[in-house]
Every structure is written in structure tokens, then in C-alpha cells.
């Protein structure tokens, strides 16, 4: 099975979950705004915004990945690293929403940073493969 046929499906289905979560956020914010609080509302929005944009990035990534001419195993590895990075970066906002405090680090902010690093690694790997194939 080719990763560039399977992983985009995972991305597309993940976008649907982000849309549902965004809808839930909108309903929550418009009905129970005071209960959520400014910090939590900000991190809830940031988590959904990052997830949506980064999942669209994965779709573009999977279009270009075959052009880098990596082995099937490496395509799986880079694709999974990218998706895990996207989930970690956006998920970190939700973790911070649950356990974090304003102006303080938390497991969520660490997870967000780790996710950003994984995304960067996957993007650099794709770039290197594309440059190699010039």
C-alpha cells in the first residue's frame, strides 16, 4: 500500500473532525462564553486554526512526496512524522487549555514545540528529496 494514497485519506478525515470541533467551539463560545474564559477560548481557537491549516499543508505535502523519489518505507516515515507533528502541535494547544496557566509553560506548550519540530523535520526531508531530484 502506498503512503501517498493512504495518508491523504487520514488528513481529509482529520479535517472533518477539526470542522466538527470548530462548530462545537462556535456553539460553546456563543452560548457559554463566560464559562470558557479568555485564555481557554484563545487556546481552543489556536488549536483548531493550526490543525486546519496544517492538515491542508499535509495534502500538498503528499502531492509532492512522490517527486522526492524516496523509498516506500521513507515515504511512510516522513508522512507519519508530518501527521504526528501536526497532531502534536495543534494538540498541544488543547493540552495547555486543560492544564496550563496564563504566562506559564505546561506540557501543552512543550507538545506544541515538539510538533513544530517534527513538522520542520518532515518539510526539510521533502525539500532535500526534491532538491536531490532537480
TrEMBL record:
What is the name listed in the Swiss-Prot or TrEMBL entry for this protein? Integral membrane protein
Its keywords, alphabetically, are: Membrane, Transmembrane, Transmembrane helix
TM spans (from-to)? 6-26, 47-64, 76-99, 111-131
Task: Name the domain of life this protein comes from.
Answer: Bacteria
User: Source species, please?
Assistant: Actinoallomurus vinaceus
Amino acid at each position: 500500500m502506498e503512503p501517498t494514497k493512504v495518508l491523504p485519506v487520514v488528513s481529509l478525515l482529520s479535517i472533518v473532525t477539526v470542522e466538527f470541533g470548530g462548530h462545537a467551539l462556535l456553539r460553546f463560545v456563543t452560548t457559554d462564553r463566560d464559562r470558557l474564559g479568555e485564555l481557554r477560548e484563545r487556546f481552543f481557537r489556536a488549536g483548531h486554526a493550526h490543525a486546519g491549516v496544517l492538515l491542508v499543508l499535509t495534502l500538498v505535502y503528499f502531492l509532492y512526496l512522490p517527486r522526492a523519489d524516496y523509498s516506500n518505507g521513507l515515504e511512510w516515515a516522513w508522512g507519519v512524522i508530518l501527521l504526528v507533528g501536526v497532531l502534536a502541535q495543534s494538540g498541544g494547544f488543547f493540552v495547555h487549555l486543560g492544564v496550563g496557566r496564563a504566562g506559564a509553560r505546561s506540557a501543552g506548550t512543550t507538545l506544541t514545540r515538539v510538533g513544530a519540530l517534527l513538522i520542520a523535520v518532515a518539510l526539510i526531508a521533502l525539500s532535500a528529496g526534491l532538491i536531490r531530484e532537480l
